[in-house]
Every structure is written in C-alpha cells, then in structure tokens.
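HOLO CASE FILE
Compound: zinc ion
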Amino acid sequence: MLMASDKDRLVSASEAKEGIKYYCPICKEALILKRGDVNAPHFAHYQNSKCLIAMEDGESNEHLMGKEQLLNFIDKRNTHVEKYLPVINQRPDLMYQRIAFEFQCSPISRKRLRQRIEGYHQLHMKSLWILGSNYRKRFGSDSVNKFYYYIDSIGFTIFFWLVNERKLEVRYNCQYVCGKLKYQRILLNKLSELIIFIHNPKTILKYHSSMHGVISQLTKIENQIFYRNQQMLKWQNVCYNQYHNISGAPFVCDIKQVTNPIVGRNFLIWKILIVSSIKENARLLDVYEFANQMVGIKFDYPLVNNAKDYVKNEFKLLIKRLITRKIIQVKNGRFHLIRQIKWFEDYYQKLNELSTQNNTIF
Ligand SMILES: [Zn+2]
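Model generated. Tokens follow.
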C-alpha cells in the first residue's frame, strides 16, 4: 500500500521518514516501510496480519508504480489514495469525485469483479477499471473481456495503464472482423484528455469484411477439420446430423462478418449452427440458445448495459436476412420453411462458387 497514518495524518510511502512508526488506516496495526532499490516505496503489514489489505495478494511493483502514476494522471490534489469505504468493505486504489479507479494487475473472477462494481453502485459511484501488463498480453481472451465497457461515442473499450510510458492506453471501437479482433488506440496523459476524447473522438473507423477475409475464414475452418481440432469437430458434427458439411455453409452466413466482442470470434460458426438448426416448426428461442451454448457465448459483462442485446440483435439480423430472401417465415416464435437453404457439398465447391460472385454480395 502507498498510504499509512502517522499520529495525525495520512503519509505516502515516498514521503515517509525512517524511524517513525506508521499504522494501517484500517486495522491500526503497525506497518513496515519498504524502500528498496527494486520496488517502488510502499508499506506492508507484518506477517500473519489478519487485516483485509494484508489478505490481498502482495502488491506487485507494477501495481505500486502504476497507482502512483495514475494519481498524477487524475489530479493529485483531489484524489483519495486507498480510501477505505466501510459500508461496502472495499478500498479502491484511487478515488476522485464519484469515480473509483482500480488498477487491476492480478487475476480476478467474474463474480468478484461484479460484486465490487455493484458495491460502488450502492454508493452511487462509477468505477474505472484499468488493466496492467499481464492483461494487456492476453487482450482478446476471456480473462480480459470481462473488463469491456460500452461507450456510445467509441464503442467497446478496454483501458490499460502503461507503466513505462506513464500513459493510459485506450483500445476502443473493438470489433471482430472475419474472426479477428480489430480496434483503434490512443495514448493519453491526463484524465481531462480522456474526457475530451470520449466527447469528441474524431474518426471512428467503420470495419468491413472483405472477400479475402471471408475466404481465409473458410480455409481456417477447413484446416481445423483436417487437423482434427476437437472444438471444430464438435461443430462439424452438429451440421453432419442435418446432413450438411460445415465447410459448405450457405453464403447467407458469410455476409457481414463484423460483430461486437460479446458475440466474439466465433460469429461465423454461430451463424452456421443457427442456419443448420432451422427446421420446420422449430422454436426460435431453442435454436438461439443452442447456438449460444455451442460456441460458449458469455453474457456476464458487468460494465456493459444489456450485454444480452448485442447477441440478440445479431440473431434478429440473421433471421431478417433469411426472411427477406424468402427462405423462411416466422410465426408464433417458430420457423416455417419456404424453401430449402442451399448448402455446398464442401469447401471446394463453395470456393468455386465464390469465385464466380463479385464482392458486392458481402
Ligand atoms: Zn491493516
């Protein structure tokens, strides 16, 4: 921790003096001042302490340094450091006005994250979760995805703190295009810059899927079947049960391969499984839930409002496309087939057919 009390006030570890006793502001136990060559100055509890803070994993140097740097990023004078909030039994790294700033470097479960965010809500506070280098290395993975924000002006966004550059990195407008995660990024020096940026982000790119991207995704599926990728074989099996080949899925699945991070990288497979499950009189809801479950779509995004809607809307769009092409009708929540959807025999037949089309079908 960065702050401790002496007799009458809070003192930061960098200002603390040797030979003076400092105490934990929460448990009131005496603390050790640590000021070595390797780690940023900080206070630590003695071993066997039962304090809430001591129970948390030992703070990494990255966390200590980042916290100190973020203090300057926000506004050193008006920011509380490690202020304990007894009502919710939480201690945000930093607190400025009604915003808790958390510099997250260590792993945290989805459940714990949601509890902490809800704790702040209880006090009518917002929380800004800023991630450390271990998360940055895993960008695009499940452990990082739970920190997605949705911000109207810049779309799906994740925040990182770069200790070496002393800057906030904002990765925004995150979307999957043909199974690949695309994003824009900006580095910021001050909280005020972030606020200006969110109000006026200037260029927000509009992503498009290309013929090249579509073909490379088809090739990837074909390769994964060839190398017996277990997950792909499981999906292939779903199609086999309907006498279809996953590599020969109808073109309607390939249109608009751009989607949000909640639907994620398996968007194409998800659409293929939906189209393959459409049968006379099948319930829409069953087909939807089956596809979500098969590709493992998660809905638990504590920093996104109505996360489920991002998946539902993609489903509606696909169904609408099938209806306007006069392939299906929907009545009372059930599918009715007007005509058979054309599947290709295999990857090669589909490729041949693709090469005779022009780019405009996508
Ligand atoms: Zn303590």
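CASE NOTES: Residues 24, 26-27, 29, 45, 51, 53-54 surround zinc ion (CB under 6 Å). Residues 211 and 358 are 9 Å apart (CA to CA).
CLOSED: yes
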